[in-house]
């Protein structure tokens, strides 16, 4: 455009100005690229800050909850020590020890969230635990690696976790439980959910990740986009999704595994 304008309104030799025009054009392009790159970085930081502001209070609640439970831990140990005196036969002592150990393990798994290196993720999972409790459901957490790594930014990981956990909690009935596994390998995070669910026929598998499809029978208009969005998010970062059935006694389980 500069060259055309000069050719119409100036007697200057245009060919002599071409190198200078090209130089300024390259400078403008480089400046645009740098600005766009900075805008992407700023956008990511804004997402991270927004998530931090949302889930940091939940992380504080988690710390306060665990700290409060630590005061009761000595009482639990004292109770375990007293079991042989209150249960003189082997059978009742065995049942009491199993019950007490299950309670201790449950308390310990809550503290595992504090060891995760991604604080926003820890706070988010804790909020989902409390949400499940209000619905009279249970979210079990098993952390295999506390040093989580991923190609996906943390604010996107929160979306992935939200879809997987919500999908599993909605699939189970009151007083049932689901399990969330967290692991990391080869620079990727591995998120696995396990819950009671339907048998995954080829027809269900073919439609499960399409927009609008849902296996839920209630409030169908509110469902059908979660797994579709999950697929888009994971594939955006060249991740993988595995889906299969597991079996426990007479129950059919659905296992979702996301590696990203």
From TrEMBL:
The chain crosses the membrane at residues 12-36. InterPro entries: HATPase_C_sf, HATPase_dom. The keyword rRNA processing does not apply. SMART domains: HATPase_c. The keyword Membrane applies. It comes from the Bacteria. Residues 152-260 form the Histidine kinase/HSP90-like ATPase domain. GO terms for molecular function: identical protein binding. Pfam families: HATPase_c. Keywords: Membrane, Transmembrane, Transmembrane helix. This is Histidine kinase/HSP90-like ATPase domain-containing protein. It comes from Coprococcus eutactus.
